[in-house]
Amino acid sequence: xxxxxxEPSQSTQPESExxxxxxxxxxxxxxxxxxxxxxxxxxxxxxxxxxxxxxxxIFPVNYAMDGRTIAIRTGSGVKLNYASLAHVAFEVxxxxxxxREGWVVEVRGFAEEVTDxxxxxxxxxxxxxxxxxxxxxxxxxxxxxxxxVSGRRISRPTAQ
Length: 160
Fold this sequence. Notes:
Blueprint: E1 27-31, H1 33-40, E2 45-52, E3 55-66, E4 69-74, H2 78-83, E5 86-96, E6 101-113, H3 120-126, E7 140-155
Antiparallel strand pairs: 1-7, 2-3, 2-5, 3-4, 4-7, 5-6, 6-7
């Protein structure tokens, strides 16, 4: 028997009234660079991918945009140690599980700790208002730049 925290959730709606996912067969289309950055600016939660000891690790992070720079507030630890002065990947998505429509944007870039840097780019990243949802010390700022960005939109097939 599964532990209580692993049991299926119970809905208060009868099964016939619960929204059902749309049929498979969605189409993928590329999203241009300008729209990718626009979509990144609409969200505040993404995933930061780093490599630690030769193995990838992914962390959910809150972020903010300063132009085309991604700013992340973090504390001391793995993210700061392994992302700073390293190539990283960053992903944000918005996908509706019922309609199976939405988008994904992936950024590949170079991360730098800009906590104490005095140049205008670093100051802009720090001022971008990346506000962590999690309590605790987040007194370091990482900025991702020199980015390659790509995105895909998943949508219903267009009528022929």
